[in-house]
Structures are given as C-alpha cells and as structure tokens.
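Newbie here. three chains, one complex. Structure please?
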Amino acid sequence: MPITTTKIIPRLGASALLGLGLAVSLPSQALPIDECIAPADPGGGWDFTCRSVGKLMRELDLVDGNVQVTNMPGGVGAVAFSNVAGKRADDSNLMVATSTVGMTQIAQGRYPGGADTMRWLAMLGTDVGVILVDDDSPYETLDQLLEAIVEDPTSVAMAGSSGAGGWDHIRALRLAKAAGLPGDQIGALRWVQFDGGGPAVTQMMGGHVDAVSTDLGEIAGFIESGDVRALAVLAEEPLPEPFEELPTAVSQGYDVTGYNWRGFYTGGEVSDDDYAAMVDTLETLYESDEWKEVAAQNGLVPLWRGGEAFNDFVRESIDDVEAISREIGVIQ
Amino acid sequence: MSDEGASDRAVLGDRIAGAVLALLALGAWWHAQTFVTGFMQPVGPGVFPRLVSVPLGLLALYLIVRPGLNHRWPGAAALCRQLGVLLLLGAYAAFLEPWGFVPSTLVATVVLMRLFGANWRQALPYGVLLGLALYVLFEFALGIPLPDMPGLSV
Amino acid sequence: MEILDFLAHGFAVALQPDHLLLALIGCTIGTLIGALPGLGPVNGVALLIPLAFNFGLAPTAALILLVSVYYGCMYGGRISSIVLNIPGDEPAMMTTLDGYPMARAGRGGEALGLSAVASFVGATVATIGLTLFAPLLVKVAIRFGPAEYFALFVLAFATIGGVTSGSFTKSFIAACLGLLLGTVGIDPVSSVARYTFGWYELYDGIDYIVALVGLFAVSECLLFLERDRDKATAAMRIGSAIPGMRRSLDCASTIGRGSVIGFISGVLPGAGASLGSFLSYVLEKRWWGARGKFGEGDPRGVAAPEAGNNAAAGGALIPMLSLGIPGSGTTAILLALLLSMNITPGPLLFEQQPDMVWGLVAALFIGNVMLLVLNIPLVGFFAKVLQAPSWFLMPMVTLVAFVGIYSLNNSPFDLYMMLAFGVLGYVLRKLEIPTVPVVLGLLLGGQMEFNLRRAMSISGGDWSILWSSGISIGIYLLAIALLLAGLVYALMIKKRLE
C-alpha cells in the first residue's frame, strides 16, 4: 500500500537513530503544529477554521507533512477544553479552534476552567452576526420584526445555532433590548436551538421558526441564492463585497454589533519559546494572500491579533460577554 | 442467536434483571429531578430522562411478574476464562499508556491467545507476530499515533 | 434535460481508466479497513484525505478515491457483520440479525453476495431518485420540523418490538435502556451534566461506536469462550458469492421496498442511514409476517437492510449537498471531505458547481459497481482469513477492536467503557434481551430529545404542537398501526406455539 511510504521513511530514520544509541534527550525544540482540534462536528465554523487553516499551513510549507484535524464535539467546546487542560497542556504541536462562542461559554462558567487555563495564540479573522427571515416572511425590515417583538414577544420564534443564553441568542436579545423590549419580557421571546446555522435557516425556510440570528459565514449561500432575506448585519461598517448591500443594524438606528472572531488556543503549559513560534507560524499564514482569499470566500473579514495582544483581548472579550450576560439575565 | 446453548425457563435471571432495571429506572427518575432547568427553557434537561424511565420501570416490573426465556449460564471453567479475558483487557487498557503500545500489546496478545486455548508454543510466536502486525497496521498503514514506550519514540 | 447532460458528463469523467483504477484502489482499501471492527468510514476517509493531497490528485480524482473508500468501508462493515456477528459500523448492525445466522449455516458467501447486490440496487435507486427529484425532495424535507421529526422517532421506537424474534417486552426494555444511556453527558441545551457523576470523560456522552463494539464484539468474544471447544474451532464454511447474487432475484421485491424506504429516510436530515436500514428491516419483517424466518437466517433479512442502508446513504446526499446539512455520522464525513476540497455544499452548489455534484453522484455509482465486482475475490479472501484457528482469530478481532476504539480519542476510558458494554451485552444476550435496540436508542435518542425540546421551544411549552400537523398525525397513525400489527402477530405466534 502506498500510504506507508510517506510516513514510514522519516519514522524508520528516527528509529535507526535510536538504534545507534543516540537516544539522548536533546534540548526541546519548537516542532511544527501537526494537529488542530475542532471542538465540534464537521461542517460548522470551528471545523472550517481547523480545516482551512490546516490546509493552508501545508500549502504554504509552514509545517512538515499534514495538520490533522480532530473533531472533538461536546459541551460547545467544553470537552476539548477539558481534554487539553487535563492531558495535553504541554503539547506544542497542538492548537484548538475557538471563537467568541467559546468566550461566551467561559464567561458564563460553562468550561472547566477560565482563560488562564490555556495560552491564547491568535485570531485570524472575524465573522459577523446576521438577522434573517424567510424570503416570503411578512417582516420586510428590521424595524418591523423588532416592533412585532416589542409589541408581543410571544409572537415570534427565533432560532440560531447556540443554546438559550449563547452568543447567537445574546445578539438577538441585545437588538430586542435596543428596540425597547423591557427586561422582564425577555423570557417571553421564544428561542430555538439547532445544530448549526444551516439547519436553523432550513427550518425557517420550512416555516417552523420566524427569524434566525446566526453568523453570516455559514449561511452566506442562502442569502446569495435568495432563499432568505437578511434584515441586518451586526457590523459597525457595511461589509465588503459581495455583501455590501446588506444593511447594518447601526444604520437602521439600533446600536448593536455582534462579531464572532475565529482563533486558536493551545495548552497552558506550552513553553514561551514554543508559544512564540506558534504565534509566528500563524502570523505568516495570516499575512499570506491565500488566507485573505479563503477568508473572503467564507464570509470572514481578515483581522489579526496575536500573542500577548490576543491574550489581553480574550480576557477583555470574556469580561464584556459576562457583563452582557448579566445584564440580560443569563447569569445572576 | 440460537447458538448459545438451549433455552430453558430460567425464571430467576429475568426476575433479577427486572429488579435491577426497575431500580435503575427509579434512580434515573430521582436523579433527573436534580437537573436544573436553564435560562428560558420550556422543557428542561430532566424531562426526557423521566419520560424514558417511566416505561423502563413499568416494563421491568412486568418482567418480574412475567419472566421469559433465558439462555443457560456458563459453568465454572468458562466463567473463569471469561473473567480472565476481562481482567486481561482491563489491565491492557490500564498499561497501554504508561508502558507504551508495543510492550503492553505483546503481553496482551500472547496471554489472550493462551486464554483462547493456544499452547505456549503457538501463543508466543503468533502473539508477537500479531502484536507487531497491529503496530504496523495502526501506526504506519492507518497513520494513527499510538502511545510510545517511556523515553523512546517507538 | 440539462441534468442528464451533467450526469453523462460526470460518468464520462469517472469512467476514465485512471479514475477507475483509483476507484478500485479506494474500494479495496476501504473494504479492508471497514471489515476491521471498530474502524469505519471515519478512519478510512481520514486516512486517505492527506494521501490524496500529498499525491497532488486533481479534485475530481481525489473525490473519486475518497468516495470509493467511503463506500468500501460501508461494505467492509457488512463483512464483519455477516461472518463474525460484529458490525463494522452502525448501519451494518441490522445485517447481523440474519446475516450471521446465514453464515453459521454455511451460507456466508451467499449472504455477502446478496448484500452486495442489494447495496448496489439501493444505491442505484438512490442515484435515480437524486437525479430526478432532488429539488422537489428538498421542498418536502424542509416541511419536516421538530414536531415531525419527533413523530418519526416515535415511529421508529414503536416498531422496535419487531426487531428480533424475542419478546416484545424485552425489545422495549432494551430500547428504553438505550434512550436512557443516550442522555448521559452534558446536555447541549442547558449545559447541565446528566448522569456523569463528575467524570469529565462522560461529558461528551457515550460514543455509540464504543457501545456498538462493546455490545457486539466483546460480548461475542465472551460467548465464544464458553462454547464447546470442538464445535467452536471447526472453521466456518463461507462458500461462494455467486449463489447470493442469483438469490437476489428471488428477493427482488424486498430489495425494491427496502430501497424506497431507505431513500425516503435518507432524504430527511437527522434520520440517516441507520434509521433507513432499521425501518427497511422491520417493515419487511412485518410484510412477510409468519411466512418469513427473520432472525434465523432469512436472506430477505439481509437484502432489506442492505438496500435500505445504501439507498439512505444516497438519499442523504440531497440535504447534504443542497442544504449543507449532514444527515448522519457517515454523511458528516462526506461533508468534511467536500469542505476540505473547498466545495461548500449549500443552496447554490447545484447551480454553481454542477460538474462537481454530478461527478460525485457518478463516482458514488462507480464505487458501487466496483464493489459488486470486487465482492467475488474478496469473499474468497475473507473465507481464507476465517480458516485461521480460533485461538488466533478471536484475539485478533478483539485487539483490532480495542486499538480501533482507543484510536478514536486516545482514551483508555473508552476502553473501560467498551468492556463495560461488553459485559452488558453478554448479560443481555443471556437474558434474551436484544442488543440492537440499545444501540438504536443510544443513536437516535439525542435527536429524539432535542427535537422534542425544539418543538416545545417553538410552541412556548404547549404540548399540542406535537400532533398539530398532517405529517405528524400521519406518522403517529402509521406507528399505531404497526405497533398493533406487531402485537397481533406476536399473539398469533404464541398461540401457534402452544
């Protein structure tokens, strides 16, 4: 079988060296990243982050061989988080995909550990929240949808890829609050969780829910095909092409933005040198034209924060989300 | 599945199973009450387990009242071999990571072959062969990283 | 017909000699991996994705290679189901019910040949359905909301009593046990840990592959130890695949029904191939009633789930390609495969990359033809493997399963879990409680629960949403009818026995 040849040669070389009695412990050296854990099933944002970045790393020769993508779903990333914390805290060949969704979980105390448990490598880009209705929905504008919600919160069933209190839900609730929904009425707005943005949108197309709040990237195809109508994107500025026509919530008078950045962490016991080398690798990748292209294809805006700057940003994000969660009543 | 010995009316096995399952259902129901319903959920995390534990409990009680057919349980010698295999596999799982894949697997294959009736002269060479074949299959052909021996990269 | 042009083009591409060679390599490797218990399409495809990239294969060639591996693994799963009573993956589970008794009666080759033909027909029906009805079926599939899915799962569990020839009570007990075990882990809706007792290894729930391999492979190994030594060591005769292929003519109507049922359940995302093969089997068993010998080596018990499973796998391509929703674990692998080749399934895929879509359909079809041909030499090969003395064969199977399970998460905990399920499987089989419903409960329980909770979230806590649509009422009526038919049939058998 031809499979063996690619891996067997370096391994045979390595074992031959051992055989020569050279099994002296050499000073540890930064090894290239060879595994990316996507804490979800294939198809979603974290899986995409791992797969596209892993593939680019190989194509740009930033690693020897392949970056293996491991899907480790469970607890919105909690399973992967506890696995890395418990077993692979010093593995400098490993990175794990995360995003604002992960920060929301940490902020609400749903991971077995806080930000200090891990070393935060970098973010490479950001996705943006979007509010959608079906193409033959009675709601033509964000105003109409939010008016209906404020008037009778029970009249609208909204859906997204996160659970009640998760990032998709929080973004929808902030809009509702900005439109004047009183705090004690928040519980009356119905929220339905699906396995991802795609399933949520399809269920909306089937008439089972009225509106969807999720990330643009995963469902961009449905907007382009005209199956759904985007009432608002939760960005500060209008998006680049091909989404430049989509109205922002800010431009419609609701001061709400909701990004979902994509980045990576590694174990908390990775040495400073290895950590710096990993951040460098990611920065080289970020600067390539290929990454810009992949990001644009998938509705991501390239955006770099790495190393210490990212570390600080993560803590800031967690504090922000915690404050919002408290304000809305997700946590007491 | 008619190959596991003749069926006979061993009422006791079903009654014990019914009792165990009824207790399990009761425990599941009771424990489900401690699950806290989260933010904005009409149906909390405890509802479905309770919905399932009711029919489980009722059917388990029915099994106690009206037990059915069982297969014959094994004799002492077979039971010992079965326990031996379970213990061996459990130990294999425990030693896989601290010892590394190759040594723990070699021990496991040889002993397992003994338990399945091979004599030492068969078990030793073929056990070693199987252990190494597994290593080559998983580590190289399938590209799955296996635990190394301590201090070595094999 | 524009679609037919694209499809013809897809076939023209797939039939190039180098592509056929790749399909042959892929199917062979896939079958060998799939036949190892605990290893399935996940391993096969994961193994070959980097290889396809390293060889710099063109996207179409890579797709053909990977799709052949995918199908090869699915077929390999049947082989261990039939000859060892150990399913290679979860949709292959139903094939053990009649395939293994056939093998024990020396008709293993026949069962393998039959399953190859049934798989082929199922896949063909799915390909035709996909070609003709894809846009229409998408419209029907999205009519299925949470309440309708819940009804569908109720239907599945209402018919579970007919899975095995054993008692109704015990089948339902097994299903409830599986459903309860399925709730273990972090509840994704509320993030509450259920029945984990502080073990973080349980947070992700019980992996159904671990349960499947434990319940079937480990318990089989334990049962083997107590069988009569002389009888047990007598090698099983496999025979040839040819009579099975001929036999498939007798089973033509079974294969046809199985294909249609499988295709329909495949089109519904979330139902998937397991439900397809399950429903095909159960409905076929009901169809023949007392005239069939299901559970004792009835060839129709192999043909129905095999046709259903492959038709479902083909049908699942519709929501996967046109909506980007993987219907089941195995479709999720195909989705990951497409994503890694920069193909993003979604509503625009059929319009923007028709060559890719129809190339994939053609590749799937060619993979099936290839398996049909490969089947004859492979049956001979596996017959040889089974000639090995049992003191070699059983440790080999057990340890391959062990290492396969370990490699899922590199976790010894999974191994302990598998042993626990092995003991459970052993005890259940001694008590004549079927193990298939346990795995089905574990497999489908999560989706059943979440669709119930989604439906309740939509209605704001009003239970009547569950029976408020025509589709769900229809499904419940069918479930009641099948449940009653099963009860009547069981009573009839009992009367006859007395």
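Moderator note: The interface with chain B takes residues 1, 3-4, 7-8, 11, 14-15, 18, 23, 163-165, 186-187, 191, 329-330 of chain A (CB under 8 Å). The mean pLDDT of chain A is 85. Thread marked as resolved.
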